Q: What sequence folds into this?
């Protein structure tokens, strides 16, 4: 171990002396071990100040310092100008009801309000005093209904109401010449009759009430003109319909000539229903 250390020191000394430029003349080989470093010398005098260098690049901003302690409250400043009016905010919640203020003066009477709903029916009142006797106008309450009509054309269509279009009399207007039907307006007992001239054919004719045959007559033609007639009494209700009708095909000898022959259909109210008449009198009063 010690031999290895000695060999290393020797090689270091030889190489240091061979390449040291300060050594002049023949190379010298001195073998020594470096001693311990000496003490530092005294510092020399300060040299003259150097020239001022170029301004360097500004450094980065330092970090913000810590927040200082709150200072004392300052004096009140001068009152500033009033700023512009801001937008109206949202409506707040309704506050509590305040105390009732003093009563104001009576205002002008307002316009009447809309009518209210009908109230409930009140109790029946006491019977009033008897009134003065009225004047009877019973004649104006008498129902009137009568007609008599003729036809101006021969041989009408079978199985349908015969349209007697020649109106001789029509009290109340209850017969309709456009349809050939009599329509009852007042309930009661009615009388109906017909006198029909026939020629060239036989005649099968009937009086019809609401689609039902009430009387049916048949007259055979013998080559001359003839007259078929019939009549009946019946009770009618309001809106009942009565008409004449040929009830059999090829038995249609109804004949009419405005110059010398007529075929007629007539009817009238004998008397009205008494209950209906009493109700009419009460309504009129």
A:
């Amino acid at each position: 171990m010690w031999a290895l250390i000695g060999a290393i020191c020797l090689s270091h000394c030889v190489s240091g002396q061979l390449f040291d430029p300060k050594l002049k003349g023949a190379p010298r080989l001195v073998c020594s071990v470096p001693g311990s470093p000496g003490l530092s010398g005294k510092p020399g005098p300060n040299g003259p100040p150097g020239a001022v260098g170029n301004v360097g690049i500004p450094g980065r901003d330092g970090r913000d310092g810590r927040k200082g302690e709150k200072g004392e409250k300052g004096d009140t400043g001068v009152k500033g100008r009033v700023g512009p009016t801001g937008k109206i905010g949202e409506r707040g919640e309704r506050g509590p009801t305040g105390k009732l203020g003093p009563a104001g003066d009576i205002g002008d009477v307002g316009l009447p309000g809309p009518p209210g709903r009908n109230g409930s029916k009140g109790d029946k009142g006491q019977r009033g005093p008897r009134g003065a006797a009225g004047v009877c106008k019973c004649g104006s309450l008498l129902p009137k209904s009568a007609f008599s009509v003729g036809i101006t054309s021969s041989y009408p269509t079978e199985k349908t109401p015969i349209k007697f279009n020649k109106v001789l009399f029509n009290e109340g207007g209850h017969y309709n010449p456009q349809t050939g039907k009599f329509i009852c307006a007042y309930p009661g007992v009615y009388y109906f009759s017909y006198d029909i001239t026939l020629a060239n054919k036989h005649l099968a004719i009937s009086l019809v009430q609401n689609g039902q045959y009430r009387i049916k007559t048949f007259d055979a033609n013998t080559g001359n003109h003839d007259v078929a007639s019939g009549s009946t009494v019946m009770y009618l209700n309001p809106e009942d319909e009565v008409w004449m009708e040929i009830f059999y095909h090829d038995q249609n000898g109804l004949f009419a000539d405005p110059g010398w022959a007529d075929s007629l259909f007539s009817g009238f109210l004998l008397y009205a229903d008494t209950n209906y008449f009493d109700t009419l009198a009460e309504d009129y009063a």
In short: The CA atoms of residues 202 and 220 lie 5 Å apart. The domain at 145-272 is CATH 2.60.120.40 (Jelly Rolls).
